Amino acid sequence: NRRFLLASRPHGAPTPDNFKLEQSPVPAPAAGQVLLRTVYLSLDPYMRGRMSDAPSYAAHVEIGEVMVGGTVARVEASEHADYKPGDLVLSYSGWQDYALSDGKGLTKLDAKLGKPSYALGVLGMPGFTAYMGLLDIGQPQAGETVVVAAATGAVGSVVGQIAKLKGCRVVGIAGGADKCKYAVEELGFDACIDHRAADFPQQLAAACDKGIDVYFENVGGAVFNAVLPLLNLRARVPVCGLIANYNAAGKPEGPDHLPGLMGKLLVRRIKMQGFIIFDYYHRYQEFFKDMSGWLAAGKIKFREDIVDGLENAPQAFIGLLEGKNFGKLVIRAGDE
Ligand code: NDP
């Protein structure tokens, strides 16, 4: 059983030596337990927070503990009445080949659902985050302009496509020409701007000639600075993530933007609301019904960036925080 432990806490960007690959015997299930073999491991930006000991909304991983993470796993052996070998489940086994479970928190996956890995993406936590943040907090109306950053990623790609389904004009922000081309040509966004371009703020303003009514915040930093002057009266800003800050080792240099932000919120009556998707799971069925319908009808596309081999998880995760992934980042740890 290979497993990745947190070896040390990163200072700034994570490095490979923050992780330790350990070999241990494959455990055997006791009465009431199942043995799970990881098939897919989801890699998500929130894991950077778990590696740190700064206070957060969830407990951090202790040094020497297995890195946490959502997984799709196959039941290898079962001493649990509800599970039999071969069942595919959604679990939270973390960065390891095998894990034991008492069945709590496991969800059986329906083979008819299409790709099992979608349970970690468009039909799982990131898709659900996009749906709730956009519809519940953003409340987009037909004809409005919706802007989303990390626009080709797991959350952003779904936000933009749902906004299109609701009749909005959608402007994506992404890193590089290939991602922007994909957002427009494949995802159907009206425009997509490269945040690495020197004149990014000017390009964004030109693409949002009627201002911005909903800004779905995934990034923060320089991207938010370009968005803020464009926010319209009564704009809504669901604050989902601030990935540009996750590797920050201290406060950013430069001018203090806080007074400008507060002034803008006040005079433009802007609603900015943070959210954590955990709080919404009572509404998962509502999401699942809509999203599985849209997928079946071909109305939502979802790109995955699948990396083979558990041993590649640290490097792939480090890349996620630098924009190296193109689509939902998933490790294929075993055969489906
Ligand atoms: P993505 O698939 O979008 O991957 C992360 C992307 O972020 C990268 O590909 C890159 O895209 C972009 N990025 C990374 N660093 C920077 C930077 N410094 N400046 C600008 N862009 C950057 O990840 P997810 O869809 O899983 O997550 C998107 C956001 O949603 C994250 O902030 C995450 O923390 C948040 N989230 C929040 C949840 C909640 O409950 N509130 C739940 C799930 C996710 P590009 O190359 O296009 O810049």
Automatic annotation (TrEMBL):
Keywords: Oxidoreductase. SMART domains: PKS_ER. Pfam families: ADH_N_2 (PF16884), ADH_zinc_N (PF00107). The keyword Oxidoreductase applies. Residues 14-331 form the Enoyl reductase (ER) domain. InterPro entries: ADH-like_C, ADH_N_2, ER, GroES-like_sf, MDR_fam, NAD(P)-bd_dom_sf. This is NADP-dependent oxidoreductase. It comes from Collimonas rhizosphaerae.
